[in-house]
Amino acid sequence: MLLSLAWRNLWRQKRRTLLTASALALALLLSLLTRSLQEGTYDSNIDNAARLSTGLIQIQHPEFRQSHSIDHLIPGSAPFIAPALSLTQVSMALPRLEACALAAGEHSSKGIVVMGVPPEQENHYSGLAARVIEGDYLKPGQILVGEGLARHLGLSVGDEMALYGQGYRGQTAAGLYAVGGIVRFAMPGFDSALAYLPIESAQHLFGTDGQISSWLIQPTGLEALSPVTTTLGELYPEQRVLDWETLAPEMSQQIQMDRAGGQFMIFLLYGVVGFGLFATLMMMTLERRREFAVMMATGMTRLKLVKLVMTESLFIGALGIVMGLAVALPLIAWFTRHPIRLSGDAARMMLELGWEPVMPMVLSVQLVADQIAIVMALLLICLVYPIIRIVRLKLVNALKGGDDAD
Amino acid sequence: MLIKLAWRNLWRNPLRTGILLATMVFGLTGVITLMGFLTGMYANMIDNAIAWQTSHLQVQRAGYRDNPELDRIIVSPTPILAALERHPRVAAVSPRFLTQGMVASARSTRGVLIRGVDPVAEALVTPVASHLIEGQWLDEHGRNPVVVSHRTAERLKLRLGSKVVITFSDHSGEVTGAAFRVRGLFQTPSSQFDDSNLYVRHGDLQALAGLEGVHEIAVRLTESNFRDSQDLDAVRRSLEPVSTAENRIDAWGEIQPMLASILSQSGVSNGIILGVYVTAMGLGIINIMLMSVFERTREFGMLMAIGMPKGQVFVLILLETTLLGCAGGLLGVVLSALLMKVLAHTGINLQMMAEGLAAFGVDTLLYPRVELTEYLMVFVTVAATAMIAALYPARQILRKQPVDAMSEKH
Questions:
Q1: Which of B3, B19, B87, B42 lies closest to B322, judged by CA?
Q2: Taking Cα atoms as reference points, which of B360, B111, B255 lies closest to residue A354?
């Protein structure tokens, strides 16, 4: 009975109901889009950046994170990594040898990072071969050079590049390599001091005797990250097991900052919409004082009246949520499949900051549930004062059409 | 007369008017804080980049930035330096001898840009000498001193007085190098810069490279407002006659085009933020005005019946919301200006995000910045939105005949 009364009451003021619901829908739509976009971008960036640079989890020598020294190595052998690979939540393990060397072309030189990687596995993991813009992917005895570095040293495919530096335990590392290919990364600066060698060549150059700098461990998903990190820590007590947040604190904090900014914006938006909602509910109540008084005079209890007003408001809320979701969900679903690709200045800016200029969205039940909960909570908060007014309604005054309380 | 009437009408229902005002003030303060924070962050990023990295202007050999070969030195730098010193808008000038190379300790190695500088001149152009966290800035004393960043020192495990080996290729392509002693440790707001730069005396570096001359002349101007390109252009024009075509004179925006595009980008994002709020606010205003108008249908009917032209009723309704919008906008702007004033004094501390900010080259203590034009823009937008939001409710009244309007019940 109450339900149908509430429903009918709503449509006595069609315009108002629709406008209030659409303000709620707009807030829901905007906040859902913003949050989905943010979380989607983070996921893709974590994955992208991690694959190319630090990986999601690394096993390293305890000193390596601080020193990045060629002296702080761990075994690169299959038996060493076997216990990690036997975990069900680990999908792959990738060895890398990372060291600094002076790279010299004909006229200039530059201190660079030499990355020794197993060509096939690395390509499988990070898709490195797809980033080759000239020449071929890693071949034995050849070096794959970052585009920025090649330009800096004036090198092109087929030229020779000398590497000179410090090897394992004070040996001199020196070698001459043919430039087999040139790679370009989306993030400028990333490829201006980076070159890849097949891991055997790198081990030979730096005389590491089969040792490597780190094992990159890929868990089956982002959610498996922390259990795997803990288990690995127990499996390799002699080494250090680090997750990407420790390996790349900059990125982790940028994500936190961006997330905080987005949430602040949404908070403001809900605030603005909340004031509007409050005003509407308040007017709805005050305007109908007389009607309420008549209902009470004919025997309706205050409790039932409060229930009626709450039901009406919940209907408005539900309507707003349905409208918001009806627009937001298909949009988000579309954008999860067809991510927005930025261009022009915005894209350049994202690249410079080390982010890919793609804006994928993620459709997460948690996000939707959170936003719906916020809308409902907002509605309840806005209802508090109108309900107090109803409870304190002075029957006789209200019937006369005069002021109700105080 | 109408204005007075509209103003009085507003205060017949103080609760409603109060809520509307609160909505505007809340929204405005929030938007302005957000915009001020973003603008402050971008401005800080640009200021830092200019102060530490690009300076206002740089003179280099054409093509040096893309392919910094050791022998691409500036052609006849003496008249350029002399002209710069005479120019009234130039505060300081630092000639630099640069080369890419490696720095190594017993523990580790790292690739860096080795900046060979004149200690006195460099200290006047960049704030490096006053941002040492340990030790001293370079001077004429001692043999081969070097000032490295705190980050590099940590990675290489260096302390004051530690010995490092710096290697690079000289102009004939041979690897050369020498031992240097750590004289001081610096820290800039940008972790990227810290990771890849160190300072030595230009004389020491030139001796190792077997080459005289300079690769770069960094110029700091007296006027530090980076949005104003007038001074930059004036100095640049005065250099053109003394420099040859083989050299290039670039302003900071050309050295790091990113910085310039951040500026234009931040305007766009501020606009989007404002648009979103204004839409939400507009819906709220329409709704409330709609109620307010319908509640008073009889009253408007009466006004029309006693001879008020429809146009004037329309204007009356518009005036009410416009006044409301102006009042709300004014209150909001005043309140947020006060808030900005407080924040500009205390700053916003983001110590928790230090590493993330350092990657952008931003300080951890941020001062929000709001330009006068931005206040004006926000105010106008809000007032205009209020007026536009009233159009629909006002039209609903005009459709009615006075008789019907007067007999309306609710």
A1: B3
A2: B360
pLDDT of residue A202: 95
CB < 8 Å to B34, chain A: 261, 264-265, 268
Q: For residue A114, what are the CA distances in angstroms to A38, A98, A103, A159, A195?
A: 33, 6, 9, 17, 5
Q: Rounded CA gap, A290 and B293, in Å?
A: 19
Q: Which of A74, A353, A325, A99 is CA-nearest to residue A217?
A: A74
Side-chain-side CA neighbours of residue B205 (13 Å) = 27
How far apart are the C-alpha atoms of B43 and B38, rounded to whole Å? 8
ipTM of the modeled complex? 0.77
Instruction: Tell me how crowded residue A67 is: count the other CB atoms within 10 A of its CB.
Output: 18
CA distance linking residue A106 with residue B243, whole number of Å: 29
Q: Is the CB of residue B101 less than 8 Å from the CB of residue A102?
A: yes
Task: Provide, as residue numbers in chain A, all residues whose Cβ is less than 8 Å from the Cβ of B104.
Answer: 100, 166
Give the tens place of pLDDT for each residue, A171-201: 999 999 999 999 988 666 678 889 999 999 9
Return the SS3 of B369: coil
Distance CA A147, CA A189 (A): 10
| B283 in contact with A, Cβ within 8 Å | yes
The pTM for the full model equals 0.82
Scanning B43-82 for CB atoms below 8 A from A yields 66-71
